[in-house]
Amino acid sequence: MMSLACRCGVLSPYLQATKHTVKNRVFSGAKELGPAAAPAGIRLAHTDIKIPDFTDYRRPEVVDPSKSSEKSSASRKAFSYLVTGATTVVSVYAAKTIVTQFVSSMSASADVLALSKIEIKLGDIPEGKNMTFKWRGKPLFVRHRTEKEISTETAVNISELRDPQHDKDRVINPKWVIVLGVCTHLGCVPIANAGDFGGYYCPCHGSHYDASGRIRKGPAPLNLEVPYYEFPDDDTVIVG
Ligand code: FES
Fold first, then answer.
1. Residue 183's domain spans which residues?
2. How many domains does the chain fold into?
3. pTM for the whole thing?
4. Which segments constitute the Rieske domain (predicted)?
5. I need a surface site. Which of 14, 15, 66, 132 has the fewest CB within 10 A?
6. How far, in Å, CA of 207 to CA of 130, rounded?
């Protein structure tokens, strides 16, 4: 009875109330009902909880509950930090490897990349002529300009242009104009060496481009696009 009363102090109010009721019933019922109705089968839930022994899982420093664990605190924390840090490094490295492999699997293969560039021999294009190549499924204009064309385009006042761009900002070597042969209006292929400005003329709706590929007249809103290109030597250009 003493132990029952003492334990009441640490139970929740609900259990305390239940326990109180059970205790009253036990003692009053014993008097009223006699020995045959004694509540021998009534047990409180907490009495049959078996608490497992976790000693095997505890660190040796904290097995003895009567000893202070404060002294071993630093070394135990260091071990925890070490394990956490190592796990984090391994996880990050694994994640980086997975992401890299996933992303690289989506990039273009070597044969596709090779097709994305075009190498053009400039010696095959006479001065004053424009040649058309197919690059990435689009027409590519390579124009070998004359000195007259270069001086004319360089002298254009860009404030008069719809898409203001100086000629020197559209070429690497003034002799060569390299642009996509796609009209910026609705995508037709312009005709070279035609139109009011002697550059390109789009017959679909009448857009006129100059010898720098800049829009000068007609509905097209922008200049012909200049792709990325470089000259590995004086006679070669690589586009793409
Ligand atoms: S598509 Fe070239 S002018 Fe319309």
1. 115-239
2. 1
3. 0.57
4. 170-238
5. 66
6. 18
